[in-house]
Amino acid sequence: KDRITVLPNHVRQQVIEQIEECRKLHESDRVMGGGEVFLPDALARKYPNEATKFGWQWLFPSSRHQPDPRSGKRWRHHVSEDYLAKAFAKALKNSGCVKNAVPHTLRHSFATHLLEAGADIRTVQELMGHVDVKTTMIYLHVMNRPGLSVTSPLDQLLESDTNVTVLAGLRD
Fold it and tell me: 11 by DSSP, 3-state: which?
C-alpha cells in the first residue's frame, strides 16, 4: 500500500541532506558490488535492474548489510523499529516529557492535530492510509471537542472584507 504524507518546511533541508547521505552510501555500496534492495517478485521480474537504482533505496538505511532469507543475497535494509524506538525513548526522556509515548503515538497525534486544525476527514484518511473512513473517524471521538472546526457561515461572510463590501453595496 502506498503512503503519502506532508513534508514540513521546517525539516525540508534536513531531508535533502539525508537523501544526499543515502546517495553517497548507495554509490559506495555500488562500487563494492552491492547497492541492491529487495523488490516484490513481480516487480523484480518485470524490471530486473530496478533494485540497484537509487530511487528504491531506503531514506533511513541500516548501517549493515543483512542476508535475505529467500535469496541469500546480502543487502542493506532500513533501520529497525527497535532502533527508532530507542532513539525516540531517549529524545522523550531528554525533553522532560512525562507522558508514556512510543513512535506510533506520533501517528495518532498527526491525525488528531490535522483534524483539530480543520483538515478534511477524507484528506486525513488518505494521509493515514486508512481503507475505511470509519477508522479515521475514531480520531474525531478522541478529540472530544464537538464543533471544533465548524464555523458559522454568517461569521465567514461578516469576517470577509470582500463580502462585507458586497453586502453594504446591496443596501444602497
Answer: helix
What is the gyration radius of the CA atoms in the chain, in angstroms?
A: 24
Q: What are the extents of the domains in the chain?
A: 9-79, 96-143
pLDDT digit string (tens) for 103-153? 999 999 999 999 988 899 999 999 999 999 999 999 887 776 655 556 777
Q: How far apart are CA 120 and CA 137, in angstroms?
A: 11
CA gap 105, 68 in Å, rounded: 30
Is the separation of the CB atoms in 167 and 148 below 8 Å?
no
Q: Greater confidence, 72 or 11?
A: 11
Residue whose C-alpha cell is 547497492:
35
Residue 172 DSSP SS3: coil
Q: Please determine, for residue 172, whether its predicted confidence score (pLDDT) is greater than 50.
A: no
Contact 62, 74 (CB under 8 A): no
DSSP state of 80: P
* Largest separation between any pair of C-alpha atoms in the chain: 82
The continuous run of DSSP H or E covering 78 comes out as strand 74-78
Please list the residues that pair with 76 across neighbouring strands. Answer: 65
Q: Model pTM?
A: 0.71
DSSP symbols for 136-160: HHHHHHHH--TTTT---HHHHHHH-
What is the per-residue pLDDT for 11? 93
